[in-house]
Amino acid sequence: MVSISVLIEIFIASLLPFNIALASILGMCPLIAISTNVTNAKGMGLAVVLVTTLTAAINWPIYEFLKWSGTDTLDLLVFMITIAASVQFLELAMQKFLPSLYNAFGIYLPLITVNCIVLAVSLFFVNYDYGFLETVVFALGSSLGWAFAIVLLSGIREKLSVIADLPRGLKGKAIAFVLLGILALAFIGFAGIARVDPIQ
What we know:
Layout: H1 4-15, H2 28-34, H3 38-69, H4 75-97, H5 99-105, H6 116-127, H7 132-163, H8 173-187
Helix pairs in contact: 1-7, 3-4, 3-6, 3-7, 4-5, 4-6, 6-7, 7-8
């Protein structure tokens, strides 16, 4: 049984010093595309948190069964099917209950299916032999870290669009990459918070 202190360290490490967006540079496509508006960024962040945590929790027992049955070479295929089904369910739910947010996402909501972090979290727990609780905590921390990064980036971009007259070459996606580089450097400062690398 894994201790609470280890779970807390995994959560903090995956949220801050080993932030999956700013340290591992995963999930960049929606991070850049959706981060022009804080409201949309919050919605996308929430969707990624739900899908990543849910699929990791579902994929762990499935992988244990595959390992037990000797068919664990199928894990990548099974993970992709689970992710696609979860995103489809989320898309249908948002279309019914949150149509304005669904319309704001446009093509980017289905892109959660191919968002690197959703699959990466499932592959990390396989590669690093996480138990169920460790997997769920790591998935929650990593996805919240990604959501934190996109909301932070979108807030800065919104503010810059109002207060700064950027040169033409730095407008749009270019400034997003510059800001991500600065944020990644800033997050190095959190390295002393956690003693564990969540994917070590």
